[in-house]
Amino acid sequence: MLKHPDVDLDAVFAALSHPTRRSIIEQLAEGEQSVSELAEPHDVSLSAISQHLRVLEDAGLLRQTHEGRVRRCALQGKPLSEAFSWIVQYRIFWEDTLEAIAQQVERDDQS
Protein backbone atom coordinates (compact mmCIF):
# COMPACT_ATOMS: atom_id res chain seq x y z
CA MET A 1 0.00 0.00 0.00
CA LEU A 2 1.19 3.51 -0.81
CA LYS A 3 1.94 5.85 2.06
CA HIS A 4 1.23 9.57 1.88
CA PRO A 5 2.74 11.11 5.02
CA ASP A 6 2.95 14.68 3.67
CA VAL A 7 -0.49 14.79 2.04
CA ASP A 8 -3.92 14.58 3.66
CA LEU A 9 -5.77 12.62 0.98
CA ASP A 10 -9.10 13.14 2.76
CA ALA A 11 -8.62 16.91 2.48
CA VAL A 12 -7.51 16.65 -1.15
CA PHE A 13 -10.51 14.55 -2.20
CA ALA A 14 -12.88 16.76 -0.18
CA ALA A 15 -11.44 19.85 -1.87
CA LEU A 16 -11.84 18.26 -5.30
CA SER A 17 -15.44 17.26 -4.57
CA HIS A 18 -16.83 20.71 -5.50
CA PRO A 19 -17.15 21.70 -9.19
CA THR A 20 -16.05 25.30 -8.57
CA ARG A 21 -12.86 24.12 -6.88
CA ARG A 22 -12.17 21.64 -9.70
CA SER A 23 -12.63 24.49 -12.16
CA ILE A 24 -10.19 26.64 -10.20
CA ILE A 25 -7.66 23.79 -10.32
CA GLU A 26 -8.12 23.64 -14.11
CA GLN A 27 -7.56 27.40 -14.34
CA LEU A 28 -4.41 27.20 -12.21
CA ALA A 29 -3.07 24.35 -14.35
CA GLU A 30 -2.64 27.00 -17.06
CA GLY A 31 -0.49 29.13 -14.74
CA GLU A 32 -0.53 31.44 -11.75
CA GLN A 33 -3.55 33.77 -11.52
CA SER A 34 -4.91 36.49 -9.29
CA VAL A 35 -7.98 35.89 -7.15
CA SER A 36 -10.03 38.20 -9.39
CA GLU A 37 -8.90 36.27 -12.49
CA LEU A 38 -9.94 33.03 -10.82
CA ALA A 39 -13.32 34.50 -9.84
CA GLU A 40 -14.12 35.93 -13.28
CA PRO A 41 -15.64 32.83 -14.95
CA HIS A 42 -17.71 31.90 -11.88
CA ASP A 43 -21.09 33.32 -10.98
CA VAL A 44 -20.25 33.67 -7.28
CA SER A 45 -19.00 36.45 -5.02
CA LEU A 46 -15.34 37.15 -4.34
CA SER A 47 -16.05 36.07 -0.77
CA ALA A 48 -17.24 32.66 -1.99
CA ILE A 49 -14.17 32.32 -4.23
CA SER A 50 -11.97 33.18 -1.24
CA GLN A 51 -13.64 30.41 0.75
CA HIS A 52 -13.02 27.93 -2.07
CA LEU A 53 -9.39 29.06 -2.26
CA ARG A 54 -9.01 28.54 1.49
CA VAL A 55 -10.24 24.94 1.15
CA LEU A 56 -7.81 24.33 -1.71
CA GLU A 57 -4.97 25.95 0.22
CA ASP A 58 -5.73 23.97 3.38
CA ALA A 59 -5.57 20.77 1.29
CA GLY A 60 -2.18 21.87 -0.03
CA LEU A 61 -3.44 22.21 -3.60
CA LEU A 62 -2.54 25.87 -4.02
CA ARG A 63 -0.20 28.50 -2.67
CA GLN A 64 -1.19 32.15 -2.30
CA THR A 65 1.27 35.04 -2.41
CA HIS A 66 0.69 38.75 -2.01
CA GLU A 67 1.91 41.31 -4.52
CA GLY A 68 0.80 44.59 -3.00
CA ARG A 69 -2.98 44.40 -2.76
CA VAL A 70 -3.22 41.52 -5.22
CA ARG A 71 -3.32 37.90 -4.09
CA ARG A 72 -1.84 35.50 -6.64
CA CYS A 73 -2.47 31.77 -6.59
CA ALA A 74 -0.37 28.93 -7.95
CA LEU A 75 -1.15 25.24 -8.21
CA GLN A 76 0.79 22.85 -5.99
CA GLY A 77 1.16 19.54 -7.81
CA LYS A 78 2.25 17.15 -5.08
CA PRO A 79 -1.21 16.58 -3.52
CA LEU A 80 -2.71 15.89 -6.95
CA SER A 81 0.11 13.49 -7.74
CA GLU A 82 -0.41 11.65 -4.45
CA ALA A 83 -4.18 11.41 -5.05
CA PHE A 84 -3.54 10.09 -8.56
CA SER A 85 -1.12 7.49 -7.19
CA TRP A 86 -3.74 6.32 -4.71
CA ILE A 87 -6.37 6.01 -7.45
CA VAL A 88 -4.00 4.16 -9.79
CA GLN A 89 -3.20 1.65 -7.05
CA TYR A 90 -6.87 0.64 -6.89
CA ARG A 91 -7.34 0.79 -10.64
CA ILE A 92 -4.62 -1.84 -10.99
CA PHE A 93 -6.28 -3.94 -8.26
CA TRP A 94 -9.65 -3.87 -10.03
CA GLU A 95 -8.13 -4.54 -13.45
CA ASP A 96 -6.32 -7.58 -12.06
CA THR A 97 -9.46 -8.77 -10.26
CA LEU A 98 -11.65 -8.41 -13.35
CA GLU A 99 -9.04 -10.14 -15.50
CA ALA A 100 -9.00 -13.11 -13.09
CA ILE A 101 -12.81 -13.29 -13.22
CA ALA A 102 -12.77 -13.19 -17.05
CA GLN A 103 -10.22 -16.01 -17.15
CA GLN A 104 -12.32 -18.09 -14.75
CA VAL A 105 -15.44 -17.53 -16.89
CA GLU A 106 -13.52 -18.59 -20.01
CA ARG A 107 -12.33 -21.78 -18.28
CA ASP A 108 -15.89 -22.52 -17.09
CA ASP A 109 -17.23 -21.97 -20.63
CA GLN A 110 -14.66 -24.40 -22.06
CA SER A 111 -15.60 -27.18 -19.64
From TrEMBL:
> Known InterPro entries for this protein?
ArsR-like_HTH, HTH_ArsR_DNA-bd_dom, WH-like_DNA-bd_sf, WH_DNA-bd_sf
Q: Which domain of life is it from?
A: Archaea
User: Which SUPFAM superfamilies does the UniProt record give?
Assistant: Winged helix' DNA-binding domain
Q: Where is the HTH arsR-type domain?
A: 1-95
In terms of Pfam families, this protein maps to: HTH_20
Q: Which CDD domains match?
A: HTH_ARSR (cd00090)
NCBIfam families associated with the record: HTH_metalloreg (NF033788)
What's this protein's name? Answer: ArsR/SmtB family transcription factor
